[in-house]
Amino acid sequence: CAKIVRAVLDIVCDLAPDQLDMQAEICKNIIEWTRREKRTFLRQRVEAKLASVLVEQKDFGPALSLVDRLLRELKKLDDKQLLVETHLMESKIHFGLRNLPKAKAALTASRTCANAIYVSPQLQATIDSMSGTLHCQEGDYDTAHSYFLESFEQLDQLNDRERAVPCLKYMMLCKILDSLTKALQLSAKGGVGAKSDRSQVDISGMISGRQGVKYAGKDIEAMSAIASAASRRSLKEFESVTEKYPHELQDDLLIKHHLHILQEQLLESNLIRIIEPYSCVEISHIASLMEMPLPSVEKKLSQMILDGKFRGILDQGKGQLIVYEDGEKDRAMEKGLQVLT
């Protein structure tokens, strides 16, 4: 009976993947029935399914409460298979709540349980993908890329296109961000982004011919267009791409968040390249070259000064930006601060 109930639930969820409210309602009804019939093992698996539906609905509060209660029960029973899946779900919930330390701890617990049992390739691919997501969130794009590659290769062998395409997009995203970050760090002394070399942010050779043919579509086109805009350091081209592919670039939380970071990096890079030759320049001139509103340019320049991206002040009375040369550090001040701390 339990196998039949789970099979029916899986069929319904596969036939109506977008009807999340209906899936949640069915899971709740089954949970009530299992409690009346005292079917503990079935209830736990359906509760795990309900938690995954709540995560897809971005309803993280109830999902976390459900997972916490479920984990307490599973640890007593020592159900390793379900512990792996539930800890993984807990990691996704904490990631959705932007609590990275707890997300990493939950993922570590999931990996620990997975090492003691056989884990299916689909579940292992999900664990690797989550590892890549957390490393990407921390800015370790090279490690994140390797995890996404592991996940993609497993899904590619399983011919699971639906889950393989997002992994391929994440791989491209990591490559773009890693290449651009390295290019900005190689810039001339005085600020990021002063030096430009197209080859430093080029990912044209990242996708093999077989992958390009097999997974060709708007998703890969969108990421390739983002890579092209990043390689040219063109903020205008970047914005036009995000407007052209809203579904492919804005629906995914990870890609949306890091594209915002990429946009800020491109903006700072272009601003630094414009102001580098000057010791004093009118803010309106910078705004006209950037083709941006004057208040937005003033706000961004003030943020960059406060963040230490370059040394200077804004003279808003005259509407000018005064840029200072990099001087030697005040060692006496540094020593004094070390003594105080």
TrEMBL record:
PANTHER family tied to this protein: 26S PROTEASOME NON-ATPASE REGULATORY SUBUNIT 11/COP9 SIGNALOSOME COMPLEX SUBUNIT 2
Keywords linked to the UniProt accession: Proteasome
Designated name of the protein: PCI domain-containing protein
Domain called PCI: residue spans: 144-328
Signal peptide: none
Homology family: Belongs to the proteasome subunit S9 family.
Family matches, as PROSITE patterns: PCI
Gene3D superfamilies documented for this protein: 1.25.40.570
One GO CC annotation: proteasome complex
Organism: Cyclophora tenuis (Marine diatom)
